Amino acid sequence: MPKAAPPLQTSGKRKMALARAMLTRGEGRVWVNERPLELVEPESVRTKIQEPLVIVGDRASRLDIQVTVQGGGLVGQASAARTAIARGLVQFLKDPTLEELFKKYDRSLLVNDPRRKLPKRPQGRGARKRRQKSYR
Predict the structure, then answer these.
(1) Cβ distance 87 to 94 under 8 Å?
(2) What total number of domains does the chain contain?
(3) What is the CATH number of the domain that holds 93?
(4) Is residue 124 part of a domain?
(5) Is the CB of residue 101 less than 8 Å from the CB of residue 66?
(6) pTM of the model
(7) How far apart are CA 115 and CA 14, in angstroms?
(8) What is the pairing mode between strands 30-32 and 17-25?
(9) What 3-state DSSP class applies to 108?
(10) Is 129 helix (H, G, I), strand (E, B) or coil?
(11) H-helix or E-strand containing 10?
(12) Which residues span the domain enclosing 82?
């Protein structure tokens, strides 16, 4: 009987969101914060998380994926989760063509997005907005 593969842990980041994904051999189930992926709302967030699984196809049906995400907002968490899942799939399946496929589809599947929010500045309501000047 073949020895079971040890679980693989990967991570992904976007803005303030940090996602950790644990991949193990299983029946193709995916959980996000201890909730099945099918129950994640809204649907746009669910489809964003599913992108790497759709690209891989049937090869992901033999893996169980548990994702824990904290910090940030909904879309930032979804982007971090998809990055963690995609990295895990590349490492677990050990397929170099898969890595190229992910890079062609969207580079942020494998690379953390370094962009952050600019800090608020004086004389304004935000990072860029300033008070209007009146010359009369």
Answers:
(1) no
(2) 1
(3) 3.30.230.10
(4) no
(5) no
(6) 0.83
(7) 8
(8) unpaired
(9) helix
(10) coil
(11) strand 8-14
(12) 8-106
pLDDT at position 99, please? 87
Q: Is residue 97 part of a domain?
A: yes
pLDDT of residue 86: 92
Please name the residue that has the structure tokens 């914060």. Answer: 33
Q: How many CA atoms lie within 13 A of 10 on its CB side?
A: 22
Strand order of the β-sheet with 63-70 is 8-14, 17-25, 63-70, 30-32
Of the candidates 111, 108, 100, the residue with the CA atom closest to the CA atom of residue 48: 108
Residue 18 buriedness (CB in 10 A; 0-12 / 13-18 / 19+) = buried
The structure tokens listed for 19 are 């996602």
Instruction: Report residue 15: phi and psi, to 5°.
Output: 50, -120
* pLDDT score for 1: 46
What is the Cα 75 distance to its own chain's centre?
Answer: 9
- Cβ of 46: how many Cβ atoms within 10 Å? 15
pLDDT tens for the chain, 136 residues long, are 456 678 889 999 998 999 999 999 888 889 999 899 888 888 999 999 989 988 888 888 888 999 999 998 999 999 999 999 999 999 888 888 888 888 888 888 888 888 888 898 888 888 888 887 787 6
In a domain, 130, yes or no: no
